[in-house]
Specification:
Layout: E1 5-9, H1 16-28, E2 37-41, H2 47-53, E3 59-63, H3 80-85, E4 90-93, H4 96-101, H5 106-119, E5 122-127, H6 131-135, H7 139-154, H8 156-160, E6 163-166, H9 180-195, H10 199-204, E7 207-210, H11 215-222, E8 229-232, H12 239-247
Helix pairs in contact: 1-12, 5-7, 7-9, 11-12
This protein binds phosphoenolpyruvate.
């Protein structure tokens, strides 16, 4: 039985004051959410603050990125070990915004994934196609390439220790959600691809959906057989919306 996970990706939004308000709202509103694992991923400067604010609650904290290297002369970078050291449990890797704006390749993401595991973090590996790729019928080959980037280099055991997030790029921040059927089709494909290496890992690995998930579409999406939760961007910035998705 896979425990659902709902993760909030705050991206580069907010301030210290707004982060405190949002964290307090989430902490206070957790009543009645018992089956779902809840995670928030604030920007780096607010990670320590989030860990302190959420102490004693059931809400975990994660980062949105971490370095390919373990440490040393890499100005401006943050290592997975540092993220772990301040109390984080998860790290989002390979988000399409990192791939698109910062040139992150599958090779870079695989290195970050290995660093995250070595540091004791649980990586959330984002995969997903652009609209043009979908229209060319390349959805499966693109998500397979993103998944294989880690699975073929770090091995199936690395997949067992992480979470996968299917995030169609055309649905991120656009209000254009994948239909439950479109999402389920890709989730099932990803699970089958993992199953080709290990049926046991495929049965246990959580695959989240991300892309304009909101309180009013979360239940339908998460009712699909292979959707095990959500990676939430915009709607994670409002405590009531985020909590409503966790309840779904
Ligand atoms: C995301 O960026 O991970 C995301 C899913 O964003 P949104 O929910 O805003 O589409």
């Amino acid at each position: 039985m896979r425990q659902p996970l709902v993760a909030g990706n705050w991206k580069m939004n907010g301030s210290k004051a707004s982060a405190e308000t949002l964290l307090a709202g989430i902490k206070e509103g957790m009543g009645g959410i018992s089956k779902t694992e809840v995670l928030v991923c604030p920007p780096f400067p607010y990670l320590g603050l989030a860990v302190s604010a959420l102490a004693g609650s059931r809400v975990a904290v994660g980062a949105q990125n971490a370095c390919t290297e373990a440490g040393g002369a890499f100005t401006g970078e943050v290592s997975a070990a540092m993220v772990k050291d301040v109390g984080c449990i998860y790290v989002i890797l390979g988000h399409s915004e990192r791939r698109q704006y910062y040139g992150e390749t599958d090779e870079i993401i695989a290195k970050k994934y290995a660093q995250a595991l070595a540091a004791g973090l649980t990586p959330i590996l984002c995969v997903g196609e652009t609209l043009a790729e979908r229209e060319r019928g390349e959805t499966q080959s693109v998500v397979a390439r993103h998944l294989d980037g880690v699975m073929e280099t770090a091995g199936i055991e690395a997949i067992a220790r992480g979470v996968i997030a299917y995030e169609p790029v055309w649905a991120i921040g656009t209000g254009m959600t994948a239909t439950p059927e479109q999402a389920q089709e890709v989730h099932a494909f990803l699970r089958q691809r993992v199953a080709a290496k290990s049926a046991e890992v495929a049965a246990g690995v959580r695959i989240l959906y991300g892309g304009s998930m909101k309180p009013d579409n979360a239940l339908e999406l998460m009712s699909q057989a292979d959707i095990d939760g959500g990676l939430i961007g915009g709607a994670s910035l409002k405590a009531s919306d985020f909590l409503a998705i966790c309840r779904a």
